[in-house]
Write a structure and sequence with these properties.
Keywords: Acyltransferase, Transferase. One of its GO terms (molecular function) is acyltransferase activity. The chain contains 5 helices and 7 strands; from the N terminus they run βαααβββαβαββ. The protein is of the alpha+beta class and 170 residues long.
């Protein structure tokens, strides 16, 4: 697996073929999209919606979007924030880590999470957090298996969804 930062054009646009791949990735995770409510219709996720979602993420200066590729195809994406909006929270956050549904259970999610953690560790960060929707038992099980532990329960900032905040020491 190769991981690289998402590159957007000078106009902030994603190249068409890449946007198509990313839309397929998001759409392949129908169950998660249904739980999250990030898109109006989890059965009809459109390229312009994915582009708008990523543009919103990238509007924050401390956000990084990483693409995971295997055999030349996008198989995963991660969105991280170096700083939480709460100044008392010292940890970076994983806002999203998603692997194409056809590649679930192949170890790519674990590998991508480890790459994200390694990048933060190299920057001297001591821990990383993620807010997992509390209605997402598969997500909770995944992050728990990677060594993340529950540290809080709260609503997310964007859609006020119930979340379990999990942290892993680096």
């Amino acid at each position: 697996m190769i991981v690289e930062p998402l590159e957007v054009g000078e106009d902030g646009a994603l190249p068409g073929p890449l946007l198509t791949e990313l839309t397929e990735l998001y759409a392949s995770n129908r169950e998660f999209q249904q739980l999250s409510g990030d898109f109006p219709d989890p059965d009809d996720i459109r390229p312009e919606q994915v582009a708008a979602s990523l543009a919103q993420e990238l509007s924050h200066p401390d956000t990084e979007v990483l693409l995971a590729r295997s055999a030349g195809h996008v198989i995963g994406v991660s969105v991280t924030r170096a700083h939480h909006p709460d100044p008392d929270d010292p940890d970076p956050w994983i806002g999203l880590l998603m692997v194409h549904a056809r590649d679930h259970r192949a170890g790519f999610g674990r590998e991508l999470a480890e790459i994200v953690e390694k990048r933060f560790r190299a920057l001297g960060r001591e821990g990383v957090r993620i807010a997992v929707l509390d209605n997402n038992p598969n997500g909770i099980a995944f992050w728990t298996a990677l060594g993340y532990e529950e540290v809080d329960r709260r609503k997310d900032h964007r859609l006020a969804r119930d979340c379990i905040v999990m942290r892993k020491a680096l």
